[in-house]
Structure formats: C-alpha cells, structure tokens
C-alpha cells in the first residue's frame, strides 16, 4: 500500500542527508515522498530525484553574533533564527502535508509537530546522534573540557534526564494556543520535539546503545547512507589525480556548521602538515580561508567541495569537527580520525568515537600546529586505531539504517501491519 510521506528536516547538509537517504528508500518501496525544508537544500533533494517543497527555514546572510560562541550557539539559533520563522514554517509544512499519511521531522523542525497535531496525522521524530535522545556518555570515555556544553545541548534538544523544559518552549506554547491546540502534557514538557509515536535514532548501535532514560519508543536504525556523490557529482578538477599519486593524504574539513566559525583551523592545520611532511587535502566548503589561498602542489590540495564518500577511503586519516555525518562516513571508510569539536552534538560525538578506539580528540583551544602534529603522529603510528576503524567499519556493513527507518515509518501508520 503506497503511503504519502512528508519528511521535514532542518539544518545543514549533514542534517538533511539522512532524510534524503530515507526518502530514496521509501520511494523504492513504492511510497510517495516529499522533503519539505529550506530552499538551500532544493538542489540536493531534487538531484536525488525526490520531490521538494520549500519551507521558510532560511539562514540569514550574516549569522547572529552569539552563534560564534559554542556555549550559546544553539540557543541563539533557536531564538533568533528558527523561532522568528515558526509561523511561516508552520504554514509551509501544513501545505506540504495536505493528504499526507505521516510526517517525519528533525530535532529542530519546530513547526512540524504542531502541523501533525493540528492535522491529526501521526509523526515521528528523528535523532541524528545520541545527544538528541539524552544519551549519557559511555563509561570511562575521555572527558573533554566541554562537558558543560554537552549538558547544555542535551537540555536544549532532547534532555531526557532533565526535569526542566528547554528555554524556548514559551513562544511555542503561545503559538499552540493561537492554533487551538492543548498545552503540552507535563510528562513531555521537557521533550517537546520527541514524538509520542516514536523516535528514529539514525545512528549505529556500535556508536550508542539504547538506555533506560529514553522516552519510548525509540528505534536505533543504524546510519542512513547518503552523500552528494550519489547524485552523480564528481571530484573537483585535479583531486582524483592527487589522490591516486603519492602517499594517502590527511583530509581536513569542518563540514557545514563549524565552517561558519573556523577560527585558525586551516592555518594551524596547514602549519602542522608542513612540519610533518604529510600530504593533505583541505575541503573548505563555501567558507574559504585566506591561509589556504594559492596553496597547491604535490603535497597539498585545496577543494571547496569533495564528496566525503569518495575522498575518505583514499585518506590516511581524517581531521574534522565531529559532526555525526562525517563520523559515520569515516567509520564506513574504515579510517581513523582526529576530532576537534566545536558545538552542538560534536563534543559528545567526539567522545564516543574516542571510546570506540577509532579517534583522538583535540579540543578547539588546544588545536595548534605542534599539538596537531603530535596527535596525528600518534594516530598514524599506533596500528590499533586503524585496526579498530576497520573492525567498526565491518560491523556497519551489516546495517541498513534506511530500510529499518522505512519499516518503522510504515508501522507508525499501520501499527498492526508490516510489509506494506
């Protein structure tokens, strides 16, 4: 039975790509799928041959000042970027959901749960990383200097172990009243973005196990694989040749969110590889860095864009900020990592990767050329990191996160029927 399904992610490419993977799998099962999100992702969605519906979820041309501070970045994002667009987002998603059987949304799609409740359709929440379901850190993991930030992130997102509500629930409650919706029940007030129908935790059980403090039901699906390379994009000029010649390079990238505030990441990284003599690929995104201007040659390659799924397998190691999508693709490529977390879920993700034995962590304040060189030397000279990366990558091969997510979406519409 074909269902009409709306997926409503919010955020950067790393937040949207898991939804594209699920959308493609749903279409292969015969369902009608629409991805409703910011116009910034229209090209990626349509290149994946998924129907796109535009939603007012746009990032401003210049980000608010508080976004540069990891301790306040998430609060500022919600209060100054997402909440002012709440009513417009609600109207857009409502239009996308006309005739829909179910709505599936990301953790910062503030309007989506209101739409589902108003229209009387089931909805599922999606947790992209363990932080978003309030997971406690693994026992004995390395503690970074960002523990307070991790606790704050859990409070703002899915703080299952907290008793207080997130600081931005009042404006949403006021809008609920305008819509004629009842107030949130006390049992869910501290987790307004967690669906009572269930949460799809789209990460691997190798990365985080189910915990008793999670609001049920939660299904750990495994990672859902999608990268822009799947949309027939190719290497930048010269990158393929660079990767095929010489020793495997170290890849440096900040992904999407952390790239807005790179600090001296690229400058210090460049100095570190010059000191060590390693070959390197710098993937900068659209946020170019002056320290890399005019840099090229046999040892160093700079690219604005490169599909991680095609580049990571050719690397010796990957240095990045700990975004869950980049970690997943590193694990799939069986490559060890050096992680320098910035904000959001990155500190927690980094700690988990370190506890798996596949990564080392260098906090942002300590991210200097000499320390980078030392950490990379340890990472590359100790065979245990490569061995563990290969072991974990092999375990991920047995998972099909998109297929599991599809099954749970179907069951949320027809709880007593499977194999629709």
Number of strands: 13
What can be said about the biggest beta sheet?
A: 7 strands, parallel
**Multimeric state of these chains?**
single chain
CATH superfamily of the largest domain: Glycogen Phosphorylase B
- Shape-level CATH architecture of the largest domain: 3-Layer(aba) Sandwich
- Decide which structural class fits the backbone: alpha/beta
Radius of gyration: 21 Å
Question: How are the strands of the largest sheet arranged?
Answer: 3-2-1-4-5-6-7
Number of domains: 2
What percent strand? 5-15%
Shape: globular
CATH C-level label of the largest domain: Alpha Beta
Helices, by number, come to: 15
Order of helices and strands: EHEHEHHEHEHHEEHEHEEHEHEHEHHH
Mean model confidence by pLDDT: 85
- Say what the CATH topology of the largest domain is: Rossmann fold
Helix content: 25-40%
Poorly predicted ranges: 140-163
What is the first-to-last residue Cα distance?
A: 5 Å
Question: What brief labels describe this structure?
Answer:
13 strands; 7-stranded parallel sheet; 12% strand; 2 domains; Rossmann fold; alpha/beta; 6-stranded parallel sheet; 420 residues
């Amino acid at each position: 039975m074909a269902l009409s399904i709306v997926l409503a992610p919010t955020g950067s490419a790393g937040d949207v790509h898991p939804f594209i993977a699920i959308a493609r799998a749903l279409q292969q099962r015969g369902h009608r799928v629409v991805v409703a999100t910011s116009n910034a992702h229209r090209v990626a969605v349509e290149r994946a041959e998924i129907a796109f519906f535009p939603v007012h979820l746009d990032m401003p041309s210049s980000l608010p000042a508080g976004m540069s501070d990891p301790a306040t970045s998430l609060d500022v994002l919600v209060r100054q970027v997402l909440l002012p667009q709440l009513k417009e987002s609600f109207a857009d998603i409502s239009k996308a959901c006309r005739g829909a059987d179910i709505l599936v949304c990301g953790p910062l799609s503030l309007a989506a749960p209101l739409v589902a409740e108003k229209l009387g359709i089931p909805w599922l929440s999606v947790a992209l990383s363990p932080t978003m379901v309030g997971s406690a850190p693994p026992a004995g993991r390395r503690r970074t200097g960002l523990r307070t930030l991790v606790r704050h992130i859990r409070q703002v997102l899915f703080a299952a172990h907290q008793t207080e509500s997130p600081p931005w629930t009042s404006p949403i409650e006021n809008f609920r009243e305008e819509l004629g919706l009842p107030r949130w029940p006390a049992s869910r007030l501290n987790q307004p973005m967690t669906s009572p129908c269930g949460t799809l935790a789209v990460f691997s059980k190798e990365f985080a196990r189910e915990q008793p403090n999670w609001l049920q039901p939660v299904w750990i699906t495994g990672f859902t694989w999608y990268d822009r390379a799947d949309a027939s994009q190719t290497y930048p000029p010269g990158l393929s040749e660079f990767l095929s010649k010489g020793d495997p390079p170290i890849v440096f990238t900040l992904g999407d969110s952390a790239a807005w505030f790179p600090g001296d990441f690229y400058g210090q990284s460049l100095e570190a590889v010059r000191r060590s003599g390693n070959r390197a690929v710098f993937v900068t995104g659209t946020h170019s860095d002056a320290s890399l201007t005019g840099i090229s040659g046999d040892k160093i390659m700079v690219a604005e864009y490169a599909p991680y799924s095609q580049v990571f397998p050719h690397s010796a190691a990957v240095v990045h900020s700990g975004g869950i999508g980049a970690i997943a693709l590193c694990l799939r490529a069986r490559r060890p990592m050096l992680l320098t977390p910035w904000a959001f879920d990155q500190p927690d993700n980094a700690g988990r990767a370190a506890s798996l034995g596949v990564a080392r962590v260098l906090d942002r304040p300590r991210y200097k050329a000499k320390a980078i060189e030392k950490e990379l030397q340890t990472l590359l000279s100790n065979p245990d990191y490569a061995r563990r990366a290969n072991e974990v990558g092999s375990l991920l091969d047995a998972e099909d996160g998109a297929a599991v997510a599809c099954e749970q979406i179907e069951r949320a519409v027809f709880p007593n029927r499977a194999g629709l």
